[in-house]
Each structure stands twice: as structure tokens, then as C-alpha cells.
Design a protein that fits this description.
By secondary structure, the protein is α/β, with parallel strands linked by helices. The chain has 8 helices and 8 strands. Bound molecules: beta-D-glucopyranose. The site of beta-D-glucopyranose has 6 residues, from α6.
């Protein structure tokens, strides 16, 4: 048994500690609330690690809203770009979208994406990249073009490669670039929310500027539908090899050639239109065949020749 005076002292110390803890907790909570309200997480003015306005599952408006109404809705978006007003964004992200003849999809996409990206407190720009109609569509090539052109506008550290007909259904799906490239469309309603195959990297994905440069971007040689994303997936091997040099063994950013027809800064997006000289495209394909380093097969290359020459 402790003497009486020691018991009293212990009780006083206990009460004192509890009060201090309680005060500290209340003060912590109050500070946190103030910071959340101001959308500032610390003295550096950076936005919070977890954006406070995220809601989880989000609904999709599949009616194509008029451009005028979309523009009215997103007053703070200028030249396809936005940055949070009350805090400094932690991520500078360019959203690249290869595009051809899909005005309805584009309006649904733009209307959906701006509110989604604003809630994520990103500094971002949306780039719609289009190829001359007489050349077969080439998703990888358009991503490469978008990458080069977006970097002329801002020092984006992160790129999202996005199909125009895919929309995120949950805003916890963060459009950021963590340490490793990220597949953002792993569960799509059309495919019963199941990944088609383990190495699928199509639809929507993200990667840092440095990583994209290291893997030498996409191949420019996949004209028509499919294959470019599988090739892209294979290129990511180099990221784990410890080499930081751009991979020159495959075609991509290092062999990219295009003529910029137009770069228009519309209110809701930057619209890039390019042409590709057919002769250049064929020469590139021939070089690939000669070097024998292509990751696409000879039969795919001949198919591509046919497509280019037919148009
Ligand atoms: C194609 C990919 C495509 C995937 C899912 C594959 O056969 O090569 O480009 O993303 O199918 O449609």
C-alpha cells in the first residue's frame, strides 16, 4: 500500500495527464477541421494527401450535354486546364486522349472528367489528339504526339493515357502516378468488371514523365485497332531493369515524326491535329523490318503497309 500522500499525488498526476491529452486531442481536431476547410494540409500550402471532396462511386450522365452548357458549368477551366484555387496541387497531370469522329463520346467524356479531376485537386490539362483522316488510326502514335505537345505547355510529371469512351465510376480511382505505372481501367462494366487478361494495360493507364521517356513511349507502328497496349506493357520491363536510359532498341519517342496541323486551346480541352507523311510511316516500318528489332511481327507490319497504302 502506498502512503496516503503518494496516492493523492498519483491521482493528481493522472488527472493532469488526462486533461493535457484531452486538450491536445481537441486542439488537433480543431486544427485539422480548419485545414480541411481551407483545403490546405500543411504550411507548404500543398493540397491534402487525400482530397476532402471525394465521394466514392459517382454517377455518369450519358446524355451528350451541349458545349455551351459544359463551358458554363466549368467556369474555372481555362484552355482545357485547371489548378486548385486554395492549395498547391501535389500532382501535375496531362490527360491524353486519342480521338477520331466521336463528338458524342467527347462531350460526355469532357463533362464527366472535369468534375472528377477537379475533385481530385489536380493541376491538369486535357489533350484531345487527332490524326488526319486519310491515315489509319494509330493510338500509340497519338499518345506520343500528345506527350510531346503537352510538355511544351507545362512541366507535367504525370501522364494519363485515356480512351474517350471510358469513364471512371469512382473518384477514389486516383489519376496520379505512383512509383510504378498504373492501370486505371481494371474493371469495366462492359466486361462485367473483370480484367480481360493479366497483362492487359489498355483503356486507361498512367505513368510518370520519366518512366514514359525511359520506355521510349509507345510504338508508332500500330496502325488500326489493337496491339499497341500489349506492346506498351512489354516495354515496361525496362523500368525494372535499373536502367534509366531511354530504351533505343524499340521505336517510339526517338523515331516520332509528325506535322502539327493545329493546336487549338479550346476552353474545355486542347485540340491537337497532326498529319503523318505516308512515306515517313512506310519508311519507319521498313527500317523496323531491316533492323529486325520490332516487337511486332512481320505479318503485322505487312498488314500495316496494306492499311496505309489502301488509304
Ligand atoms: C488487343 C489489345 C486490346 C485487348 C482488349 C487485345 O487482343 O491486342 O489491344 O486492348 O485485346 O480488347
Amino acid at each position: 500500500m502506498l502512503p496516503n500522500y503518494l496516492q493523492k499525488a498519483a491521482t493528481i498526476v493522472f488527472i493532469f495527464q488526462t486533461v493535457i491529452l484531452l486538450l491536445w486531442y481537441l486542439n488537433y481536431n480543431a486544427t485539422l477541421t480548419i485545414l480541411m476547410k481551407r483545403n490546405i494540409s500543411n504550411k507548404s500550402g500543398l493540397c491534402p494527401l487525400i482530397p476532402p471532396d471525394l465521394v466514392g462511386p459517382i454517377s455518369v450522365n450519358i446524355n451528350a450535354t451541349e458545349w455551351m452548357d459544359i463551358e458554363k458549368k466549368f467556369q474555372k477551366v481555362i484552355k482545357g486546364s485547371y489548378r486548385p484555387e486554395n492549395c498547391k496541387a501535389r500532382h501535375k497531370v496531362a490527360i491524353l486522349v486519342p480521338y477520331r469522329d466521336r463528338d458524342t463520346h467527347l462531350r460526355i467524356f469532357i463533362n464527366h472528367m472535369h468534375s472528377f479531376l477537379i475533385r481530385q485537386q489536380l493541376e491538369y490539362g486535357i489533350y484531345i489528339v487527332e490524326l488526319d483522316k486519310d491515315i489509319p488510326f494509330n493510338r500509340g502514335f497519338l499518345f506520343n504526339v500528345g506527350f510531346m505537345e503537352a510538355l511544351k505547355d507545362n512541366n507535367y510529371g504525370c501522364f494519363v493515357f485515356h480512351d474517350v469512351d471510358l469513364l471512371p465510376l469512382n473518384d477514389f480511382n486516383l489519376y496520379q502516378c505512383p512509383d510504378q505505372p498504373k492501370h486505371l481501367s481494371v474493371a469495366i462494366d462492359k466486361y462485367k468488371f473483370k480484367l480481360l487478361y493479366a497483362t492487359n494495360f489498355g483503356g486507361v493507364s498512367s505513368m510518370s514523365t520519366e518512366q514514359f521517356t525511359t520506355i521510349n513511349g509507345y510504338s508508332n507502328l500500330f496502325f488500326g485497332w489493337g496491339g499497341e497496349d500489349d506492346d506498351f506493357y512489354n516495354r515496361m520491363d525496362v523500368l525494372n531493369s535499373g536502367t534509366k536510359r531511354p530504351n533505343q532498341a524499340v521505336d517510339g519517342l526517338n523515331s516520332l515524326q509528325y506535322n502539327l496541323t493545329e493546336k487549338v486551346y479550346r476552353k474545355m480541352y486542347v485540340h491537337i491535329t497532326v498529319t503523318l507523311n505516308k512515306k515517313d510511316a512506310v519508311t519507319q516500318l521498313l527500317n523496323r523490318l531491316k533492323k529486325g528489332k520490332s516487337q511486332i511481327s512481320e505479318s503485322q507490319i505487312f498488314e500495316t503497309f496494306k492499311k496505309i497504302l489502301k488509304n
